[in-house]
Design a protein that fits this description.
21% strand; Rossmann fold; alpha/beta; 5-stranded parallel beta sheet; 37% helix; EC 3.1.1.61
Length: 349
């Protein structure tokens, strides 16, 4: 079996060393070269034809974003961004995902052996997934869904739950920017570390007609609003009388993720039942499949993103395999299908 060829671009010699060690310890991959800046990286890419590039977001001589934009235009390839845990770092990373980067990781925290072991596993998993990806278009090159007109007035008992992971930031953008102002309340779990979800919610809020915010404990789930799980905290649904509320829980990871899609979906199945519509979007792994099964069994309508429009057809595939998906939908049609199912539920009830 041919090993996955990785090239690391980072101005930190320490990070280049750590990344090389992590990659070369994996039996199925090798670090073919490292570069301290994008100008040197250009020649190394031509020489080694790597399968995956890891790219620092902030570097001298040429900005990581400028390099990524040129790379995706001239020689598209799977790129994983390596970001600092700062406001600026999170904003640059979100720009990189728009430009076509597959995924991102934060820079490692030194000195914690257990933490470095988990970090190594995370890096290796993301590289393996990225090496299999062939759908890494820039968002601006994909067909943007039309903004949908307001639907017939739907009661506030309706709720939409969405789960996503790798590739999910741009998939969510396509779904949410099409939502009308009177859509049911939306709860979202996107696998993303702490420090990035607030920037992501703020970015979506500027692009969408609906209000998008990072969820806070006790938030009332209102029509025309979307609530994004904070990084590192589980988001669930609870109910008080006739009102739905967001519940944040500081619990261990579920399916290796915090926040977890499964936890959100299970809570929606419990408290919303047949009044809910669930959608599982692009992402690696199996988080969300069992929760979607619970929603389906509780009478909710369930949708999965189609394989041909997923960056990674992992999470949707697992849900489909459980037989709990009512519809498989291209991402540019997902908003319309979600709303059609909400309206269909209201008519049936």
């Amino acid at each position: 079996m041919n090993k996955i060829k990785v090239l690391c671009v980072d101005d930190s010699a320490l990070i280049r060393s750590i990344m090389s060690k992590i990659v070369n310890e994996q039996p199925d991959m090798e670090m073919v070269a490292t570069a301290p800046d994008p100008l040197i990286a250009r020649d190394l890419i031509k020489r080694h034809s790597p399968d995956v590039l890891t790219l620092d977001v902030e570097m001298p001589r040429m900005d990581g974003l400028d390099f990524l934009e040129r790379l995706m235009r001239l020689r598209p390839m799977p790129v994983i961004m390596v970001s600092s845990l700062t406001q600026k770092g999170s904003e640059i990373t979100l720009n990189a995902l728009e430009l076509g980067a597959i995924d991102f990781v934060t820079k490692p925290q030194m000195g914690l052996q257990d933490g470095m072991l988990k970090y190594s596993e995370l890096i290796a998993d993301k590289i393996r997934v990225a090496a299999r990806v062939r759908n890494f278009q820039r968002y601006s090159e994909t067909s943007a869904p039309a903004r949908l007109p307001a639907s017939p007035l739907i009661g506030s008992e309706k709720i939409i739950a969405i789960g996503s992971s790798t590739g999910g930031t741009e998939a969510l953008r396509q779904v949410l920017t099409a939502m009308p102002l009177n859509c049911p309340g939306i709860m979202i779990t996107q696998h993303m570390p702490a420090g990035f979800t607030r920037s992501f919610a703020e970015r979506l809020n500027k692009l969408c007609r609906i209000t998008v915010k990072e969820a806070e404990n006790g938030d009332r789930i209102l029509p025309g609003h979307a609530y994004l799980a904070p990084g590192g905290i589980h988001l669930g649904l609870t109910r008080s009388g006739a009102n739905y509320h967001a519940q944040l829980q500081d619990l261990p990871p579920v399916n290796r993720h915090c926040p977890s899609v499964d936890l959100l979906f299970h809570s929606v199945a419990k408290y919303a039942g047949k009044n809910a519509v669930g959608a599982i979007l692009t992402g690696m792994g199996y988080d969300g499949a069992q929760g979607m099964q619970a929603m389906h069994q509780a009478g909710a309508r369930t949708l999965a993103q189609s394989e041909r429009t997923c960056v990674v057809y992992g999470m949707p595939r697992e849900a489909v395999a459980l037989g709990c998906v009512d519809e498989i939908v291209d991402i540019d049609q997902m908003c319309q299908h979600i709303l059609s199912n909400v309206v269909g539920q209201a008519r049936r009830i």
